[in-house]
């Protein structure tokens, strides 16, 4: 039982990332009818917002200390981050918490990028076939990842979690197991709770605000909403920006779990599209449910006991589950009839 509980925990943080990316994909598809293959790149750009903030906070002031000499008889260089030199202990705290701080920067940055993408490119493909949308957004994703590669290099860039969140949490005693049997990294739990909070905010926004109600109405019948005199195009631009923010925040907070590199967006994109299809195209609840479900199943498939029986099952389990679900229920878990027609 303790092994089962641990695997469920292990699947929650990855499931949270899948759910957040799939949620943004579903919002864009449901409102705009666009299959956005550049959405994974937005996840990657959010991660590199965290990398950039860390690099900015780590910029050093170099001073020579004549009281300490190198092996060559020259004064030793003392490097102090500017942020610590300027702000003291508060600066040291900002440096330590650079990943959480980066989400404050990622929100306006990702919102701006999302609006630029929608206004400059995506809106010209609203009425084009899905194949055209896939090709142009896939091309945009490649351009973005190559730009990141040229700026940050091809190697992963480690991003440590804040020191206070680098330890392990012992769930054993809390749930009746022996101490030490069920331990879980603190930051992974924080990421899971963070993903639940973002999902809750998005659903509350769409459910309980006038703006969200109009968007949901537009998802159901865009032409009728337009005939009522509502500028639905402007609202959809904001929704695209909101979906970009969700993907960017997911990427920024995931960096201590997976060191970001230029192709991480494409890695998550493919899996997230599977999540969207399994959950049901256009279904927000289905995207979230499928994200966590497939994350947990992938965690169980990565157990040595399972891989010894089915070698490589952890690499294909998500696709196998997708095939089974779509054979039984072609619309996905919560998909609507005819959502992909036309």
In words, what does this structure look like?
The protein is built from 14 helices and four strands. The protein is mostly helical and 342 residues long. It has one domain. A two-stranded antiparallel sheet has the order 1-2. Helix 1 packs parallel to helix 7 and helix 7 packs across helix 8. The C terminus is likely disordered.
**Shape, principal axes of CA atoms:** globular
Estimate what percentage of residues fall within beta strands.
5-15%
Which strand order do you get reading across the main beta sheet? Answer: 1-2
Percent range for helical residues? 55-70%
Largest sheet: 2 strands, antiparallel
Overall average pLDDT: 84
Based on CA atoms alone, the radius of gyration comes out at 23 Å
Tally of structural domains: 1
How many DSSP E strands? 4
Count up the helices. Answer: 14
Q: Report how far apart the termini are.
A: 48 Å
Q: Structural class, from secondary structure content?
A: mainly alpha
Return residue spans where pLDDT drops below 50 for at least 5 consecutive residues.
338-342
The topology string of helices and strands comes to HHEEHHHHEEHHHHHHHH
Please supply descriptive tags for the structure shown above:
67% helix; disordered C terminus; two-stranded antiparallel ribbon; 342 residues; mainly alpha
Concise structural overview:
With 342 residues, the protein is mainly α. It contains 14 helices and four strands.
Topology:
Blueprint: H1 2-32, H2 39-57, E1 60-69, E2 75-81, H3 82-87, H4 89-96, H5 98-120, H6 130-152, E3 168-170, E4 183-185, H7 186-208, H8 210-220, H9 222-227, H10 232-254, H11 264-279, H12 284-301, H13 304-309, H14 313-328
Antiparallel strand pairs: 1-2, 3-4
């Amino acid at each position: 039982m303790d092994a089962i509980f641990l695997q469920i925990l292990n699947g929650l943080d990855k499931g949270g990332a899948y759910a957040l990316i799939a949620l943004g994909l579903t919002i864009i598809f449901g409102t705009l009818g666009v299959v956005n293959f550049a959405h994974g790149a937005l996840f990657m750009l959010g991660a590199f917002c965290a990398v950039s903030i860390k690099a900015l906070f780590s910029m050093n002031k170099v001073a020579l200390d004549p009281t300490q000499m190198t092996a060559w008889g020259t004064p030793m260089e003392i490097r102090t981050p500017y942020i610590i030199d300027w702000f003291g202990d508060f600066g040291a705290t900002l440096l330590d918490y650079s990943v959480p701080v980066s989400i404050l920067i990622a929100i306006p940055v990702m919102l701006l990028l999302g609006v630029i993408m929608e206004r400059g490119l995506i809106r010209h493909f609203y009425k084009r076939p899905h194949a055209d949308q896939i090709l142009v957004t896939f091309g945009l994703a490649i351009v973005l990842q190559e730009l990141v590669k040229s700026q940050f290099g091809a190697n992963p860039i480690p991003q440590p979690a804040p020191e206070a969140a680098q330890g392990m949490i012992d769930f054993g005693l809390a749930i009746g197991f022996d101490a030490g049997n069920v331990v879980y990294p603190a930051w992974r739990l924080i990421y899971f709770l963070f993903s639940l909070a973002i999902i809750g905010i998005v659903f509350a926004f769409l459910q309980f605000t006038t703006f969200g109600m109009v968007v949901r109405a537009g998802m159901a019948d865009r032409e009728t909403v337009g005939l009522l005199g509502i500028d639905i195009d402007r609202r959809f631009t904001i929704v695209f920006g909101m979906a970009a923010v969700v993907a960017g925040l997911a990427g920024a907070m995931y960096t201590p779990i997976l060191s970001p590199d230029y192709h991480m967006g494409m890695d998550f994109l493919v899996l997230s599209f599977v999540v969207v299809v399994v959950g049901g195209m256009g279904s927000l609840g289905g995207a979230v449910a499928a994200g966590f479900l497939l994350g947990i199943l992938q965690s169980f498939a990565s157990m040595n006991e399972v891989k010894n029986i089915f070698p490589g099952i952890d690499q294909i389990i998500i696709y196998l589950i997708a095939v089974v679900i779509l054979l039984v229920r072609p619309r996905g878990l919560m998909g609507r009839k005819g959502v992909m027609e036309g």
